[in-house]
Design goal:
The chain is α+β, with helices and mostly antiparallel strands and 274 residues long. It has a domain at 56-102 and 145-271: q2cbj1_9rhob like domain (Jelly Rolls), CATH 2.60.120. The chain is built from five helices and 14 strands. The strands form four sheets. A six-stranded antiparallel β-sheet has the order 1-6-13-8-11-4. A four-stranded antiparallel β-sheet has the order 7-12-9-10, with no helix packed on it. β2 (12-13) and β3 (19-20) form a beta hairpin. The chain is globular and about 60 Å long. Mean pLDDT is 81; it is low at 1-33.
Length: 274
């Protein structure tokens, strides 16, 4: 069983390199500049600014139904009702527990996020070649879970900076967040403005202020239902916290394939016109 793109016309161009799988409504045009430079002085603005480098990170919210199901599976494990195998032997996390998620459940996650994942692939391909493209007609997208696991983190647990190997893309979904984590950050006596208690941090290249400021990291405060997808080679880490309660998330490594399902030569990625 795999999740597949069936070759139908799911994607509608918004004219700015991002495809809405539902109705083609444009999203924020943060990617517009790298795909279609205007080469004009925008009225009322000092100019245009370009951000063509670096990896893309995707976000959406999980359904409440999926959150409940995943939490129930993890709760049953924690209570000894239906134990899961440990995945910790393959990971570097310094956390309380990392139980494996069964493959059929991982596929359910992919099924819910299927259109979102296809749209993400189209976006990163567009960023790579600086053209507004979509999957060729008659294409089958297949997403395969390589591994999936829960991360059960409590006070003073942490996950050191790392990447994921043996896969194309990785993801994080948040299932439980202790309300006291936000208070931890506010009570940070050393530097509450840049406090990192319980945050996830993505790291890419080296930010420096020697010449011009550069963004080398991106920190996110987890909330229940948040789901992030990113390249497997993007470095990331999770900071410890002090408050009581469980910070519960799940991670999954995935590979994807594109295959032709029609006999004609589709000629590769196709330019999408708005």
């Amino acid at each position: 069983m795999t999740s597949q793109y069936d070759g139908s016309d799911r994607y509608k161009s918004t004219g700015d390199g991002i495809y809405d799988p539902k109705d083609g409504a444009p999203v924020e045009k943060g990617e517009l500049n790298i795909l279609h430079p205007q080469r004009i002085n925008p009225p009322g603005l000092p100019g245009e600014f370009y951000t063509p480098f670096g990896p893309a990170v995707g976000y959406r919210q999980l359904s409440k139904k999926l959150i409940r199901k995943l939490n129930k599976i993890c709760d049953n494990h924690a209570k000894g009702r239906k134990k899961l195998e440990s995945h910790a032997r393959s990971l570097i996390g310094k956390v309380t527990e990392e139980p494996e998620i069964p493959k059929d459940i991982a596929l359910e996650v992919i099924d819910e996020l299927y259109e979102f994942l296809c749209t993400y692939i189209a976006l990163v391909k567009s960023r790579e070649i600086k053209q507004n493209v979509g999957p060729p007609p008659g294409t089958k997208f297949t997403f395969r879970p390589v591994s999936a696991w829960f991360v059960r983190q409590y006070a003073n647990d942490y996950n050191p900076i790392h990447i994921h190997t043996g896969c194309n893309m990785s993801c994080i979904g948040y299932l439980k967040v202790p309300p006291g984590i936000a208070l931890d950050r506010k009570k940070d006596t050393k530097n509450d403005l840049f406090s990192s208690h319980g945050l996830t941090e993505f790291v890419f290249t080296n930010g420096t202020f020697d010449t011009l400021p550069q963004a080398g990291n991106y920190r996110i405060a987890p909330e229940v239902g948040d789901f992030w997808v990113f390249p497997a080679t993007l470095q990331h880490q999770v900071y410890p916290f002090k408050t009581k309660g469980e910070r519960r998330s799940f991670s999954m490594n995935m590979n994807f394939d594109m295959e032709k399902i029609t006999p004609q030569d589709t000629g590769g990625w196709q330019e999408m016109k708005g």
